[in-house]
Amino acid sequence: MPEGPRHPTPILLVLALRWLAFGWMLIVALISGQIQRPVEAGIALLATGCWTVWLTMAGIRRMRPVLAMDVAVAIALTVAYGHIHPPHALLTEHPSFMGAYPAAAVAACGAVYGPRGGCTAGLILGLSLPFAYAANEVALDRLSFLQVLAMIGGGLSYVLLGGTIGAAARQLDALYERANRAGLRAARMAERQRIAAQIHDDVLQELARLRANIREAGPAWATVAEGIARQESALRGLGAAEPDPLPTDVVSLRARLAELAERHDDVAVRLITAGPFLLPAGMATEISAAVAELLTNVVKHARAHHVWLTVLPDGGDITVTVRDDGVGFPPDQDTSGLGLRLSVKARVHRMAGGVRIRSSPGHGTEVELRIPKGNDHA
Description:
The protein contains 10 helices and 7 strands. By secondary structure, it is α+β, with helices and mostly antiparallel strands. The chain is rod-shaped.
């Protein structure tokens, strides 16, 4: 059975067709006067009724064997029609005892397995028609051209029915899956809007008041105010709508850095981002490699317990900051080591970005990578 959500309507319609066809079988058996073997007809009606009741009560489970049994029942009814009715009844226009019930099996295969499954079931059922003619004592080699065409047309009608039902069911399933995705997306969007409203009403307003008070304190607090402004921007980004599925040449920087952070179990790395940051794959790879080198330096030299990895938008740039609570170093100490020069500064400079390092003994180290967001050099 195909994966993915399935709309229940096709199977329910097939079930309704079964009951209508079974009702037609009862009517023909009672009033047509064309039943030559009533005992066999009664057995066929009882077996078909029990099978229909079981399908209704139990639903369709163990799909493949159930549908195979359903096709077998349809073939048995087709052959039984020729046996139960008087000889040569198939060549007349008398009402059919089996009615449309065999067609329900073909329709079920089409609803579950699509056009291919429906056509296959229709072909198998169509190939059983010569056996029904033989059971009805009709000599196949004596059929006229029109009678042969009628028999072939009956078989092709089953194939056409199965293919049509299968195609319609596939289209309905596709629409059903699309509607489910749209509903889930709408639910996520509503939740994001709720979170964004809460952030705006509580956190952002409080940060704005705090930033205004700090700026009034004097130029010395400008750096703190700038940091608060960045956090405001990050929080606003958290309420942004979720992006559509990514193109093949675009990746999420947040996802790349999250994988990187999870691999460092020797130091606690906390990732803070303001969104997925969709970038060309090469650019995201360069940034991830630079951050990996910085985390390696922290583990080797900083003796830190915690690392904060922050990714924030800053105008047309992306700012990636790696801050630790390690031992730090004096501001005048040379920070142009080979690893920092080759694996960090060189990568950032290739993307037309810059690197800034701040540290002091006992207060950890902060390395800021600033990369133009529109740069696609990588």
